[in-house]
Amino acid sequence: MTDNKALTNKIDFAVIISVNRANPNGDPLNGNRPRQTYDGFGEISDVCLKRKVRNRLQDMGESIFVQSDDNRAPGDEFRSLNDRFKAALGRWKKDVEDKKIESADTRNNAPKEWMDVRAFGQVFAFKGNKDKDADAVSIGIRGPVTIQSAFSIEPITPDSLQITKSVNLETEKNPDKKSGDTMGMKHRVDKGIYVTYGAINTQLASKTGFSDDDANKIKLALQTLFVNDVSSARPEGSMEVVKVIWWQHKSPSGQYSSAKVHRTLMDIVKADGTYDKLDTLNDLKPEELDPLEGEALQRLCK
């Protein structure tokens, strides 16, 4: 478990993302075509972005509660959030008996146990044993880190490609004849620049114990967002972090609202991912970060 000192000052951030012949986030309600708004702008959902951040934090050695089933930590045998939570709850109760911790309270222990709960919060809503109603739990924890969906700078026009599989999924009466299930579709965005915005709130950080050190880990995760994120829809090199903009305020509540801070970037990002000089808002100077590479990336991925 981690016992952190809460975040000192408010943080705002933005990430500029380049897409090159990839499907950045498929829409399951639209045949897995790249997500689009009604105006035709591309979208990457906040849930998709948080999944990538969680994966990066896990690669960095952090304990993660919401693990994807195909990217579970070594030695983690749990196939559901319920099983993972109940195992942790059992450990907490034993630690109370051994007087290692004062209580098995979920609100107190879950953020210490898991980095993503400390950052994003989590709803623990699990059914109890039929014979033991006390096993049921319904607890909501609000996290300090919020991330908006990423939207493209310009409208996108997804390309669709019909593909043919080399073999039937099931044996046909005539094996030489192709069945209907050998046909499929792939979709992609040829080129696009997406931007997402987020913030880290000190008031909620004090509730979960999210610290300045945790904020730095989020920054590193954003700088390496697409490391180990390869798939058929997103081939290696097709998704890239162009720039991470990091605003560290000088007070817990911040000098300016997040909306005003984010607007300093909104109107100046160009279609190629570049932008003119950022407005510093008098006393709030942004940190402009390139994606990690070289020895820095090697150390992070050990």
TrEMBL record:
Pfam families: Cas_Cas7. It comes from the Bacteria. GO terms for biological process: maintenance of CRISPR repeat elements. This is Type I-C CRISPR-associated protein Cas7/Csd2. It comes from Desulfosarcina alkanivorans.
